[in-house]
Amino acid sequence: MKATGIIVEYNPFHNGHLHHAAQTKKQSGADVLIAVMSGQFLQRGEPAFADKWTRTQMAIAAGVDLVIELPYVYATAQASDFAKGGIALLDAIGCDSFCFGSEQGDIEPFLRSYSLLEEQRDQYEHLIHEAVQTGISYPMALNKAYIQLTGNADGFADLKQPNNILGFHYIEAARKMNSRIRPMTIQRIGANYHDPIESSTAIASATGIRKAFFEDKSIEELSVFMPEASVLALKRFKEETGSFGSWERFYPLLRYTILKERPESLKRFAEVTEGIENLIYEAAKIEDTFEGFIVRVKSKRFTRTRVQRMMTHIFTGFTWQQLRSFQAPSYLRLLGMSANGRTYLHHQKKKIELPLISRAASLNDSMGKLDIHATNMYLLGLGATRLKKEFTTPPIYFG
């Protein structure tokens, strides 16, 4: 059986994701669609809107055949490491290709951009270093150096666009690990990443959908932007938890976590760098909302996303020492499957390159224990009184 892969968050699963999944399977000619999906915390440093099992239900109902969890250490990482973890898992489970949505819509510019940066790696890194010294953020420094090398010439990928950036890193990760997987991309349609919802279209960004929920739009009002299975799954999740995951919901626990530390001890948490620990501590003393806190801490140098990732690691207790101890994914955690996905696993079981784990009780190494801990902290943030869901929830199965 031929498999193609995608790397996703589904926060939540909407009509744009449905288009991506269907087109990926169609254009790749694959029999099986495999999604590597972030768990309870996401790449932009946020708690997931709904837990990983709810988002797995959405995905399997919409035609994804297998959902594999992207471990916390990669799911909450900067783009290059996020991509590295996702591609490694797709490679290990035997995908022939992977496909990402992009503003570019054509794979060739990405391949040319990768070749250029590899050929001029020393000059590129020198330009990045020069740009960082001016006080701009690292992502801005990367883009400035890239523009200097390409001269904005036609034929290269536009790496100012968020999905293009991730797509480039997927290709970079695959090339550097000598993966056999063939890269593909499809044109992103409808809303851009940060766009608000528009009543004139059935395609909205996940950011826009979440924002509308938190502005008291009902699930029914937003159902036009999502498949019916997603709407039903979100209703069940809200009935169980009372609300959706967000930093505003989690902030009282985050604030307590920050203030029980001393500023100097905050430096041990992953991504907390360059003296920002004092600002974090002082902002937590003053601000009683997460939005007020983040506005006080973020800056041109420390973007909102970067600060949110710091907060994720402080909240979960994830340290620099832990971060530096992980080199590659050590298992494939199965979150859900269709009947077609189950057949694929049966045929591939002797070829899969990492242990396939379906129960949390089998997550015995440090990476797996970190995933369990992250789930416990996520459930605590939602107000759960029992933290056994990781051990009591089997893989989702739609036969």
TrEMBL record:
ATP binds at residues 7-20, 101, 163, 188-189. Pfam families: HIGH_NTase1. It comes from the Bacteria. It catalyses: cytidine(34) in elongator tRNA(Met) + acetate + ATP = N(4)-acetylcytidine(34) in elongator tRNA(Met) + AMP + diphosphate. It is an enzyme of class 6 (ligase). Keywords: ATP-binding, Cytoplasm, Ligase, Nucleotide-binding, RNA-binding, tRNA processing, tRNA-binding. Its EC number is 6.3.4.-. Gene3D superfamilies: HUPs. It is found in: Cytoplasm. InterPro entries: Rossmann-like_a/b/a_fold, tRNA(Met)_cyd_acetate_ligase. The keyword Nucleotide-binding applies. SUPFAM superfamilies: Nucleotidylyl transferase. Catalyzes the formation of N(4)-acetylcytidine (ac(4)C) at the wobble position of elongator tRNA(Met), using acetate and ATP as substrates. First activates an acetate ion to form acetyladenylate (Ac-AMP) and then transfers the acetyl group to tRNA to form ac(4)C34. Belongs to the TmcAL family. This is tRNA(Met) cytidine acetate ligase. It comes from Planococcus shixiaomingii.
